[in-house]
Amino acid sequence: MAAPTSDTGDVRQRDAERTRAEILEVATLEFADKGYAGARVDEIAARTSTTKRMIYYYFGGKEQLYLAALENAYSVIRGIESEVDVESSDPVEAIRRLAELTFDHHESHPDFLRLVSIENIHRAEHLTKSDLLPRLADPAVGVLGGILERGRAAGVFRDDVDALDVHMVISSFCVFRTANRYTFQAIFQRDMLDPARRDHYRTMLGDLVIDFLTAR
Fold first, then answer.
1. How far apart are CA 6 and CA 105, in angstroms?
2. What is the distance of C-alpha 197 from the center of its chain?
3. CB atoms < 10 A from the CB of 205, how many?
4. Other CB atoms closer than 10 Å to residue 152's CB: what's the count?
């Protein structure tokens, strides 16, 4: 029998990565739709080209799969934040760009917001077990901190707010707009995700953050 070649190993590795990614994608939808308690690994297996046994092989169990889906969802937005040019861009424009990237991400990833809401219901009991937890915070704080530092040095930004203050302002607007879409519409008859208002809200967010940072 011929020994496995490096090419064979590469193919198996790619297949494993594709399978794992497919499981994570379906698991994210399942947990976001039904919550941690309501989600079923059997259902996730049925909707993927794998088995429950294989899911346990890759992830270990339901809780580990849920945590992996949560980590993956956070990693996506942190990767987007890391793309902002902190060193050479104008700090005001960099802040606006970061706000707009968060706006775009949260609008196009409603499952991320549902997962975060579910984990808050569980008081972050799963997320606090994550080995990736420090790395889930560092990009957001690091990118914002760099922009704020340059803005203060240029005499543009106030010096009595920190990166987490700004992160909270941006996230609050973006999360509220998507997570509370239906109740807001029922009460006020306005759809916050109406495409006709999208550019208005996107600009509004940037203006709010910049006005907050430049207020004297």
1. 38
2. 23
3. 21
4. 14
Q: Which of 84, 101, 104 is nearest to 198 (CA)?
A: 104
- DSSP letter string, the chain: -PPPPHHHHHHHHHHHHHHHHHHHHHHHHHHHHHHHHH--HHHHHHTTTS-HHHHHHHHSSHHHHHHHHHHHHHHHHHHHHTTS-TTTS-HHHHHHHHHHHHHHHHHH-HHHHHHHHHHHHTTTTTGGG-TTHHHHHHHHHHHHHHHHHHHHHTT-S-SS--HHHHHHHHHHHHHHHHHTHHHHHHHHS--TT-HHHHHHHHHHHHHHHHHHHH--
pLDDT tens per residue across span 179-216: 999 999 999 999 999 999 999 999 999 999 999 999 87
Q: Do residues 11 and 25 lie in contact, with contact meaning Cβ atoms separated by under 8 Å?
A: no
Separation of alpha carbons 98 and 209, rounded Å = 10
* 56-91 residue pLDDT tens: 999 999 999 999 999 999 999 998 888 887 777 899
39, 62, 92, 132 from 75: Cα distances, Å: 22, 20, 25, 9
Sign of the Cα torsion 179, 180, 182, 183 reads positive
Greatest CA separation for the chain: 76
Distance (Å, whole) CA 168 – CA 164 = 6
